[in-house]
Amino acid sequence: MHKQCLCGKTMVLELRKVIYARKVEILHVPVFSCPSCCSSEVLQHVANDIKELLQSLRDQPSSQRISFARNNELAEIIRKLVIEEAGNPNADWQSSLEEQLELRINLLLDLYRYARSLGDEDWMNDVEKRLTQLSGFTSKSVFTNTKN
Ligand SMILES: [Zn+2]
């Protein structure tokens, strides 16, 4: 998956490991990086979730390794697509992403209905949070340089 860097070259989306407070390793953080000018930026749509994750770690700085993809639906979809793309360099990222997004949202909506039929509020809240991570995200927002 690519987007254009401000320097004019193509940025590549990759999953990076972020070290926090020298002790905590956060795996699978989606980051755009430019091989030409070496600038990089966290995928906008997940930036807030990463901030929240870091804030939640502030009180427990023990050594640990966390997968961001396990905490974030969008990162998980991208993680799977990156693995797929590795075996198929000509893959059409944009349509794969849209397809996976739609599948995942439909699955979560089904889960939500099921959890509601059981009256399981904790589960409903969890599914709702996951849906929020995907809502408002379009593949278009990945491929353009708009900053908000
Ligand atoms: Zn650049």
From TrEMBL:
Organism domain of life: Bacteria
Name this polypeptide is given: YgiT-type zinc finger domain-containing protein
